[in-house]
Amino acid sequence: MKTIIRNGRVIDQKNRIDGVMDVFIASGKIAALGTEPPHGFQADREIDATNLIICPGLVDLSARLREPGLEYKATLESEMGAAVAGGVTSLACAPDTDPVLDEPGLVEMLKHRARSLNQAHVYPIGALTRGLKGEWLTEMAELRDAGCVAFSQSDKPLPNTRVMMQAMQYASTFGFGVWLRPQDVYLADGGVAHDGEVATRLGLPAVPVCAETVALSNIILMAKETGAKVHLCRISSAEGVAMIRAARQQGLSITCDVAANHVHLSEMDIGFFDSNCHLVPPLRSLGDRDALRAGLLDDTIDAICSDHAPVDDDAKLLPFAEAEAGATGLELLLPLTLKWAAEMKIPLSAALSRITSGPARILGVEAGHLSPGADADLCIFDPAQYWRVDAAALKSQGKNTPFLGMELEGRVKYTLVSGLVVHEG
Amino acid sequence: MTDVGIMSNNPQLNKNGLLQHLLTTEGLPAPILLNILDTAESFVGVTERDVKKVPLLRGKSIFNLFFEPSTRTRTTFEIAAKRLSADVVNLNIAVSSQSKGETLLDTVDNLSAMHADMFVVRHSQSGAAHLIARHMRPEIHVINAGDGRHAHPTQALLDVFTIRRYKSDFRNLRVAIVGDILHSRVARSQIHALTTLGVPEVRVIAPKTLLPTKVERLGVHVYHEMTQGLKDVDVLMMLRLQNERMLSARLPSTEEYFKYYGLTQEKLALAKHDAIVLHPGPMNRGVEIDSAVADGKQSVILPQVTFGIAVRMAVMSILAGN
């Protein structure tokens, strides 16, 4: 199967490419970029990408596919469909499934299920501790052999600092990445909104910023001591960004990401108890949001993730604190990144790197660029097409997002995984 | 989208700007609050008559939906509705359908299918009344009788009604709210009602563990000591202290709390000589208030209860008329 994509604007930050050209694909790989086909190239399919942008398929660091165990919220099939509809061709999925991804057999099964659907590449993140209970280490090396690319505690607490330290030491023995979302379990206990003016007005139990920074301080100190390859998930506060920036300036090789919702929204968006804005970590102040944007701009924050967590409608139709946290995100990752780029007036190539080469580097996988010979994972989108975020427009089984009912710019037209068109919009 | 203010699209008002639901005192214009107070004034007479009934809500069905136990508030709403000649149904949902796993909105849907005209809702979660109001058919009215820590607007309205009865003009008053502001829906609603009605100085007095973050953004002055906070105030609004505050490490003991924040005659003497003392009830004597003050001549705690019925009659009749 040979495919030619004609006349699109190719943007590949990693290879410093930004220009209108053709993309030639053969045997699932990028054969060439440019205007001249490789010698003897005969296309079976031609895609006209005039006025469209061709970029590497998006790489998402935080998607909950809800399989195994939580299929009533979403199935692998529905969410893989959502991923490619959003231009996402590689995704890391968190271990907080039911049962937890803490055994090689479960990981293999998930990889097998994902492969059989023949859509995006799925990279399981293994549980750092058995059952995510924060007590005993998992068989990390075995889990890696089964396909795990890193290890995390998901949103489950790890209050025992000795276990955390030893988990980092053990992981670093093999060079495995440890992914942690910094949150102190006691300081965050019961909280559902940022400890600020809005929670005060609405009478919502609050999560103070120090719930993030106290935990962050522990993690940074232990990363320094153990030399572990730590990735920080979904940073939410200005103070947190400043601490990570300082740690990096000291030469620590930690990385971090931010959720797309947090790049745009603040506590103010909760309005009158909008449960679609019940997210973890909570939406914080406007100052925090601006610091997250600035952190992305100066490379303190390496990646934007979808924080995809589909929630069924019934679980959102409850008073704010009782409503389940989370939002669907895979199909909003691209438009929300474009919106950030437009608002900050930064070049598209720099913005797209936060959802392609940046996260690919953290995952440690060959993705996020369009070098000849690489897997032909591509996202082809219309940067000027507006679309309305509503239930009908979303493939994900979760229809809940703070952006419900809004118009966003940027719609995926084609998604290719290993050279095959897996989505046409 | 972040510049969408909290006040936009007020869910309490209908498209003509009239009160559709009473969910919170926040964001209600002063004329609406004053109209409720004036209407309540006319109902005080009714409650003092031999035949304590007017036919304003004859044929209307009012459902008291209490998802959280309450005797006093539910009773005053029931009396208010009956004095307006409405049919009243009391439901204590805490012990019925919720324990069978029915969701809040399922319960409400079932009841509205029984042709309710008005719901009076109390729930332990902030935002529950907003959720129900948003879900309702437009002809149904919702009154928030207390949601979590968020709001208790009829309590705040009866408090300002009581204040107006004893102090003529809101615009030269100094009011202190004392106690557990953090967990208090009453305090939040009082603050918004008082500031909207033009009270120039509203103070909150509490230890830092009982004050929410940035409470000063609600337009209040923050004090941590009674000696300073009570100086020259015209009105003292005491709040109930729940025992579980000790368990959550917010306070060391009721004894220490009473010593530093409990209202005694000596502390009351710091306020103006004609200051009045309010309490939303039920009181913890010897914790937030001394019996000598609660039963003393500056206390208006029992009149509050009486006025509560008139204020709730006013709210119900105004909503039914809009």
Helicity level of chain B: 25-40%
How does the major sheet of chain B shape up?
5 strands, parallel
What is the mean predicted local confidence, pLDDT of chain A?
A: 96
Architecture (CATH level 2) name of chain A: Alpha-Beta Barrel
Low-confidence residue ranges of chain A:
none
- The CA-CA distance between the termini of chain A, in Å, is 21 Å
* Overall pLDDT score of chain B: 92
Shape of chain A: globular
Helix fraction of chain A, binned, reads 25-40%
**Which structural class matches the secondary elements of chain A?**
alpha/beta
Structural features, described:
The complex is a heterodimer of chains A (425) and B (322). Chain A has helices spanning 76-85, 104-117, 140-146, 161-174, 185-188, 197-202, 210-226, 238-249, 260-264, 286-297, 313-316, 333-344, 348-353, 357-363; strands at residues 2-12, 17-26, 29-34, 45-48, 53-56, 58-63, 88-93, 121-127, 150-152, 177-180, 193-194, 206-207, 229-232, 255-259, 303-305, 378-388, 407-417, 420-424. By secondary structure, chain A is an alpha/beta fold. Chain A is built from 14 helices and 18 strands. Chain B is of the alpha/beta class. Chain B has two domains: 30-151 and 306-321, Aspartate/ornithine carbamoyltransferase (Rossmann fold, 3-Layer(aba) Sandwich); 153-300, 3-Layer(aba) Sandwich (Rossmann fold), CATH 3.40.50. Chain B is 37% helix and 14% strand. Chain B contains twelve helices and nine strands. Chain B has helices spanning 30-47, 72-83, 104-112, 128-135, 153-166, 185-196, 226-229, 244-247, 254-261, 265-268, 291-294, 301-321, and strands spanning 61-66, 87-92, 118-123, 141-147, 174-178, 201-205, 221-223, 235-238, 276-278. A five-stranded parallel beta sheet of chain B has the order 7-6-5-8-9. In chain B, strands 2-1-3-4 form a four-stranded parallel beta sheet, sandwiched between helices. Chain B is globular and about 55 Å long. Chain A binds chain B through residues 195-206, 208, 264-266, 268-269, 271-273, 286, 289, 314, 317-322, 406, and chain B through 1-6, 11, 26, 103-105, 123, 125-128, 130-131, 134-135, 147-151, 185, 188, 212-215, 217-218.
